[in-house]
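FW: tagging you since you asked about this chain on Friday. Here's the raw sequence from the shared folder, copied in full. Didn't touch anything.
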Amino acid sequence: MTEAQARSSSSLKAIASQCQPAETINAIEPLGNGNVNETFLVQLNGNNQANFVLQRLNTAVFSKPELVMQNLLALSDHVDQKLSEGIPQLNGRRWELPRPLKWADGQQDWLEENGNFWRAITFIDNANCLEVLQDLQQAREVGFGLGMFHLLISDLPATALADTLEGFHITPNYLAEYQQVLKHSQLIASADAEWCIKFIQQRQALAAVLEAAKARGELQLRPIHGDPKINNLMLDAESGQAIALIDLDTVKPGLVHYDIGDCLRSGCNPLGEETTNLAAVHFDLQLCEAILEGYLSVARGFLNEADHHYLYDAIRLIPFELGLRFFSDYLNGSVYFRSDFPNHNLQRALVQFKLTESIEAQEQEIRAILERLRGSQP
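HL: got it, structure written out here
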């Protein structure tokens, strides 16, 4: 361990010990591969001690972290109540929600220290997350997990949640920001960047499809997860069943279409978001159908006719939106998404745009799947 790593480890233990006595802390290790927050697993001594997650929120992204925590507490209380009443669709399976832990004084739900915002949450043990789906059964479980999350919060009033990321998933706003960044960027002199610029220009009208439907009153604001990519879905290590949806910082009022589109975007790209094999990027129809089967098995009760009408638009829009965000961040010097090399966010944008192309090329097939699954509903 280097001197810098030793200092960092000591600092983390000092923070964690304000939630759990220092003598019970065995180790603190990085957890996950998120692009925004810093996340650690705090491992405790003894079989009766439950490990927990320590996380430093990125306040450059979440400028009002107290509201993030208020949403998480409101969500936890609501889901606890629903689970206590019993959910027939669970049929005895395990389901968990990451919950905030109190700090040392038993009153605080978070810790502010030296300009940093820390929180501790429960760790979901004996579970795995996926970067890519291995088979159709995993895909159905991912769909089930998102559907169960939506079912549990479907009667939580959207007004009970703060909008912690104003403008998040509002695609026309991302397009306007991109157009401003493009005017001043010095990073457009490459064939890939020029291709992205042309790709976006040809699809500008796509950006407003969901927001326009919302403005017309066709789609309604509901509580949403906001970022249900497949690696935020936890599967039981033994049964393989979906048991939790994690990374709840983006929970807020929104359109469920954002969640459905994002889940399919991440789940139906077998090569994953970080692939460099652009020629092989494609939207997998079998995975799409399996995810939607799992989702509708629990979520069909709260989707109306207008919701169904705009599902294809959501499937197409969300990868385009994420590609737009990656490309804008690349042009802006990669100040939002963590990047490992200079063109990382450009590469990520290309993957999402290639995925969008694949969706467009299979529009008829995707619409047929949506119609078939809708028709199979009781």
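FW: The first helix runs from residue 3 to 16.
HL: agreed, and Confidence is low (pLDDT under 50) at residues 1-7.
FW: great, closing this out.
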